[in-house]
Every structure is written in structure tokens, then in C-alpha cells.
Design goal:
heterodimer; A: 126 residues; mainly alpha; Arc Repressor Mutant, subunit A; 2 domains; 3-stranded antiparallel sheet; globular; B: 451 residues; alpha+beta; 11 helices; 16 strands; transcription regulation (chain A); transcription (chain A); WH-like_DNA-bd_sf (chain A)
């Protein structure tokens, strides 16, 4: 997958790496079990600190998107489950976003339409 | 002979400078004369007119400097010929460089005037699959093994034939140069992969071709260098081996330039067919063909002309390496000129003295020799140097032979002004010493004192 980061963005670099990999997975640019560059390798290529990449990777590992071992390096997990922890996190994030949408006057149908479009976009590999 | 070499070399440098300075005028990855332009602006008439004017000026300069080098033929003194050649070389490089800077300014002005500025992007893009396999077409590092063995065998033969005192500068210089090629190979392997087109497979082709070309060149260079000590040893037996080596060097240089230009054309063709997705305006880091970006951790970066690797002067190590190379080159050049000036105009510059204990031989550009009298097994006065005289390291011109040589298959140290009609040979167990002062009566006086 093609990974973009912007050094001038207000979003921390590790967060950008984290978000980009999740977006790549959803769009099918990254496949389950696909190997990713090692922390040092990616840091060298992006010209950023190793700790930045390690932080992004560690967050993804905690969330179950990546796995790593000494022999095979860092890989995308083979399968993903909507487990209890994920569902809880999803609820929390959606709760806040739904609240913000309601404040700005969006209807339930409009909100549903936005989610449907986004979801379909990932299915089409956008 | 030396004067003809200088004249030929001057013409070669002038033509090479014109040809290489013209390269930045050909667009490469949207960069023309160090100025990043939008893709559609590259073929605009004002751009074409400016690059044409630039190229015309370069070839005019090449003709001017080629003609300016011709008077070297009539200079009798080696030192003055070398001084004239060096000053001309500095003038030539300075003028070509100044012309390039002048036209970079003009191109920048044109860019501003036409409103062709590109928004500065701080975004970086990498391809994770490309990173994982970026060095798949790199020539294997094991290929350096052969050149390393050649070098070791050659250096060993140098040590055996020429002796340690004569061969150590050669051993040091060649070992360091060989290591430099290995270092550059490592630099090429470590360079980041670039995302340039919208198609990952095209990026892969560009990346593979770039790394393969450069790693191959480093390996070939290591072989051309690795064989040199063997050639030096062989020249002490058959001198014509040196001419074969010169043919090899010339062939290698032609192939090197051809290969890099072929690689650049391949990149341009591919990038022309598939326009760039990332047009990063790095103009602010490139100043007059030098890269200076303190925020970039890389020490070496691919240049923007597409046929070179540049040093990042923004890093302390970059400044240190750049400064050290400059000091080394200038120091070497001026020490040779200084030595030759002292030989030509230093009056009694090649001199000897003898006491009851030792004989001292002195000349500019080489170490003073102190020979104990009891070590001298034979003293002989000759009319001229033997024909079988090969230079190992030192000064060897039409007028002087100073330094370490191999004479009649024996290691020798020479302090000789040529064609004076009197050459003194002192033979010791380890090596011979040849002495000939500028005035032959001084050589004969020493002979009488020792005989």
C-alpha cells in the first residue's frame, strides 16, 4: 500500500501511520497476512524517528490489526473480529460523532447516508 | 610530452564540462536548471529558448578554454606548465559553474515571472511493498569479492617487488578507494525508494533500474581499481602493460558515462509516459548543484540531474567530508606545483653532502635520504640514467626524476636532473640511489669525494 504522512500536519506522525494503515486495510490496499516493513526500515524511508513508527505499530498491534514475531517481522493479522473491546470503542467514537451531528442539525437518514457512502467507498477500494 | 598531455587534458576537461553542465538543461523529473516546474511548462517556448542560449554559451566556453590551453605547448618549465594548466583549470571550472548559476537565476526569474510556482508540499509517500523488495535487483555484494582478492594479490606483489617504503602510499590510497566503492554501494542500497508515478509497477521498474545501474557501476569500478596494483607490478617487467591499462580505463569511462545517460533516458521515458503523482518542490534545498537540508537525515542523496549522487551539506558529516575532500585535492595540487617550482627555479635544489659517516641526498617533493657510508657497496658515475627506469611514485617529467623508481629491476630512489651528462649511482644491499645535480660538476665532485 501507499502510505502518506505530512510532517506539517497537526495530527501526530504516529497517529497518521496508524490511521493510514487502517484505511489501507479497509480499502483492500493491504491484505491480511501481508508483510510490512520493519520499524527501522519504515523510519528510514519516511525520514522520521524510529520511536514514532514503533508507537504507531504498537497501537495497531494493541488493536489487533498487526502482529509481529522475530522470525517473520511485522505482518497484518490474518483475520479480524469485531470483539467486545472493538465494539465498545466503536460505540464511544460514534457516540461523540452522532452527538456532534445532532447539534449541527443532521437527521438520522442523513447520518446513515454518510456512513453508507463511506462504507461503500471502502468496498470499491477508494 | 608532459605539455602535450596538459593540452589534451585541458581540451578533454573543457568538452566534458560543457557536456555535463548541459545535462541540467534537459528536464528530469520536472526539474530543469535546478528549477522545479509544472509538467506542462517544460516545453514552453521561453524555457526552450533559455536552455538553448545556455547550451550555446557552454560550447562557446569549451572552445575558448580549449584554445586558451594551447600556449602550454610552448612553456619550457614543467612547473610553469603545471601552474598554467592548474590556473586554467580553476578558471574553466569557475566559469562553467558561474554560467550555470547565472542561468539557474534566469530560470528562477522566468518561473516567478510566468507564475509557475508549485505549492510546497510537506507530504511524503512511500510504498510498503516496494520498501520490502527495493534491493531485489541490486548486484550482489559478493561480487566485490573478486576485486578484493585482485587488490590483495596486487598489493602483496607491490610489497614484494617495490618494498614497503615505496609501495605503502599506493597500498593506502588503493585500499581506501576500494573501500569508498564499497561504501557507495552501501549508500545506494540504503537510499529510500521513491514514489514517482501513479502506478506501483512503474515505480518498481524505475527503482530496480536505478539501483541495478549504480550498484553495477560500483562493482565494475572496484575491479578497474582492484587490478591496478597488479598492473603496477607488471609494468616493472613489461612497461607496455600500462598502455593496456589506459585503454581499459578509457573504455570504462566511456561505458560509465553511456550507462548513466542510458539510465537517465530510461527514467525520463518512463516518467514522460506516466506523469508524476508527486511533484515535490525541493528547490529551496538545492543551491547551485549542492544539497543543503539539515532536516534530512540522509548523508548522500540522488542528485536532480539523474546521473549522480550528492552529499548533503546540511549534515555535520557532510560538511566534514566535503571540506576534507577540498583540502585534500587543493593540498595535493599545490604541493606538487610547489615541488616543481622549487625544482625549476630553486637554484641548487637537488643537492648532496657527504661526511665521513653518511651521505645525504636532498630534493624538493621527496624525503631526504641519509645513507651510512659503510652500507654503500658500489659507487659508479654514468652518463645518463639506464633506459629501464620505471616510476613507482614521485615526480617523473622530461627534466626531472625524483622519488621512488624501479631501475633495472631494482628498487631505487632518484634525485635526478635529467640530461646533465653525469649521474651518480650508490648501490646498497636494499636499493640503489641515483643522484644528478643540475650542474654536472657538483655530481662529479661528490663522485670524487666518495671514490
Amino acid at each position: 500500500m501507499r502510505l502518506r504522512i505530512d510532517a506539517a500536519s497537526t495530527v501526530p506522525l504516529y497517529q497518521q501511520i496508524h490511521d493510514q494503515i487502517i484505511l489501507g486495510l479497509a480499502a483492500g490496499e493491504l491484505r491480511p497476512d501481508e508483510t510490512l516493513p520493519a520499524v527501522r526500515q519504515l523510519a528510514d524511508e519516511l525520514n522520521v524517528n524510529m520511536l514514532t513508527v514503533a508507537k504507531g505499530y504498537n497501537l495497531l498491534k494493541t488493536e489487533g490489526y498487526l502482529i509481529s514475531d522475530r522470525r517473520q517481522g511485522t505482518r497484518v493479522a490474518a483475520d479480524f473480529q469485531a470483539d467486545k473491546l472493538f465494539m465498545q470503542s466503536l460505540q464511544e467514537q460514534l457516540h461523540l460523532l452522532t452527538a456532534a451531528a445532532k447539534i449541527r442539525g443532521l437527521s438520522v437518514a442523513e447520518l446513515q447516508q454518510i456512513i453508507t457512502t463511506q462504507y461503500q467507498g471502502f468496498e470499491q477500494g477508494e | 610530452m608532459l605539455n602535450w598531455i596538459f593540452v589534451g587534458l585541458n581540451i578533454f576537461v573543457a568538452v566534458t564540462m560543457a557536456a555535463t553542465s548541459a545535462l541540467p538543461a534537459k528536464p528530469h523529473k520536472n526539474v530543469i536548471l535546478e528549477t522545479t516546474l509544472p509538467h506542462n511548462a517544460l516545453q514552453q517556448p521561453p524555457i526552450l529558448a533559455l536552455t538553448q542560449q545556455y547550451k550555446k554559451q557552454l560550447w562557446g566556453l569549451a572552445i575558448f578554454f580549449s584554445l586558451a590551453g594551447l600556449p602550454i605547448m610552448f612553456i619550457h618549465f614543467d612547473s610553469l606548465a603545471l601552474l598554467y594548466f592548474t590556473l586554467l583549470l580553476f578558471g574553466l571550472i569557475g566559469t562553467f559553474y558561474g554560467t550555470e548559476i547565472h542561468f539557474i537565476h534566469k530560470m528562477n526569474q522566468l518561473k516567478r515571472h510566468q507564475g509557475w510556482g508549485i505549492p510546497i508540499t510537506t507530504e511524503k509517500m512511500v510504498d510498503t511493498q516496494l520498501i520490502l523488495t527495493k534491493n531485489r535487483r541490486l548486484v550482489p555484494i559478493s561480487w566485490f569479492g573478486g576485486s578484493g582478492i585482485l587488490l590483495l594479490v596486487g598489493l602483496f606483489s607491490n610489497w614484494r617487488v617495490l618494498g614497503w617504503t615505496t609501495s605503502w602510499p599506493l597500498i593506502l590510497a588503493l585500499s581506501l578507494s576500494w573501500l569508498l566503492f564499497l561504501l557507495l554501494y552501501w549508500v545506494i542500497a540504503a537510499l529510500p525508494v521513491r514514489v514517482l508515478t501513479a502506478q506501483p509497477e512503474h515505480d518498481r521498474l524505475l527503482n530496480d533500474a536505478y539501483r541495478q545501474t549504480w550498484s553495477r557501476q560500483m562493482v565494475i569500478s572496484s575491479y578497474v581499481l582492484g587490478i591496478l596494483p597488479l598492473v603496477v607490478t607488471l609494468t616493472t617487467i613489461i612497461f607496455s602493460v600500462m598502455y593496456l591499462y589506459l585503454v581499459l580505463i578509457t573504455g570504462f569511462c566511456v561505458y560509465f558515462i553511456y550507462d548513466l545517460i542510458r539510465e537517465r533516458n530510461f527514467e525520463d521515458q518512463l516518467l514522460g509516459d506516466f506523469s508524476l503523482t508527486t511533484t515535490t518542490d525541493e528547490d529551496r534545498y538545492w543551491r547551485y548543484a549542492m544539497y543543503n537540508n539539515p532536516n534530512d537525515r540522509r548523508l548522500f542523496v540522488p542528485d536532480r540531474v539523474g546521473v549522480n549522487i550528492s552529499l548533503n551539506l546540511g549534515r555535520p558529516a557532510g560538511k566534514l567530508i566535503g571540506g576534507a575532500i577540498l583540502v585534500l585535492v587543493l593540498g595535493l595540487l599545490f604541493s606538487v606545483i610547489g615541488g616543481l617550482l622549487a625544482l625549476d627555479f630553486g637554484g641548487n635544489s637537488i643537492r648532496a653532502s657527504a661526511t665521513t659517516q653518511a651521505i645525504t641526498l636532498k630534493a624538493p617533493g621527496t624525503r631526504t635520504s641519509q645513507i651510512k657510508r659503510q652500507e654503500v657497496t658500489q659507487v659508479r658515475l654514468m652518463r645518463r640514467l639506464p633506459a629501464n627506469t620505471v616510476r613507482a611514485n614521485g615526480i617523473g617529467t622530461a627534466h626531472f626524476a625524483i622519488g621512488n623508481f624501479r631501475v633495472q629491476k631494482r628498487s631505487a630512489k632518484l634525485y635526478v636532473a635529467r640530461d646533465t651528462g653525469a649521474v651518480l649511482r650508490l648501490r646498497t644491499k636494499q636499493r640503489d640511489y641515483y643522484f644528478s645535480a643540475k650542474k654536472p660538476q657538483e655530481t662529479r665532485r661528490l663522485y670524487r669525494a666518495l671514490h
